[in-house]
Design goal:
368 residues, alpha/beta, Rossmann fold, Dihydrodipicolinate Reductase, domain 2, six-stranded parallel β-sheet, 13 helices, 18% strand
Amino acid sequence: MESIPAQIPSVHGSSGGNRVAIIGASGYGGLQTLRLLREHPFFKISFLGGETSAGQHWSEICSFLPLDDDPLVQDIDFEKISESSDFAVLSLPNGLASQIVPELIKRNVRIVDLSADYRFRSLSKWSQTYVHEAQKYRRSDHELCKEAIYGLPEWNQKSISKADLIASPGCFPTASLLALLPFLNQGLIENDGLIIDAKTGTSGGGRNAGQKLLLSEASESIAPYGVIGHRHTPEIEQEASEIAGREIQLQFTPHLVPMVRGLLVTVYGRLRDPGLTAEDCTTVLNAVYRNSCFVDVLPVGTYPSTKWVRSTNKAMISVQVDTRNGRLVIMCSIDNLMKGQASQAIQSLNLMSGQQQETGLPLLTFYP
């Protein structure tokens, strides 16, 4: 990963196009992406693709979000996509994107993938983490896994601007890494004993029905899941290890809370210098994210709320220090469907096309 630069023009931006295909448009990630691109001043939606929704007009699927000329959702046809589009955003189940990406890359379509298929540098690591998907989908795209750029713009801006394939991070890794990386990068916290406590709304489970996402199950309740071995754990560890310069193993526990959207992580780590104060650590965050328009560092004593970032591409971060034990507490809130998914993907698209990264992205929530 890189340090955070000022805005860098893309080598592709001056000659690149603005046509974007959305593959998997009817899921939550696809819907958010489509809504943002629909109002974007530069990009134009050029192709809608899907599997179960193919053959239907968009108005049959989503009448509350109309598109000009009511386009037909088409089968995933590589030639049609490459002829109509310069970019593609893939919002597909894990594993399926890997069957599409190599063919589109061959045809010079630049891709932002919202699935986990290219987040790991190693295909074998992906196969170990996504066992069911690895059994269902045969893959041999080792080189693409190595070449894909991890799409956390606050840390990989220059690489994203030049990339042909972006592996957009998961929602939990986005919030966790934005909170954790500044302190690992500066060597201010110990590498061992890191704990991430995370809470997210039900939309994080996607649009398909599941028992735990039923109103009668999720309402008036909070419950942990994936307590040991959640799929996002090795993704967070991979990026944290790269910054720290040594292998990081951490404890990550997500919880499902009874709200639709929003995500909050609380990260615990032990300071190497127990004399550091919360004000010192806030100064570190302000220095690291000084050029990041989407990261708000809150004053000491003000703690982030998911409602403050709802429907925006913002991340809000705050810190506190327990002087009794030298432990640093870092809190970060994001909208799991926006900064944790769709709007972060468009932030990467903006960089890839040479636009200002904030172009077409919301900065302020509708409150309350």
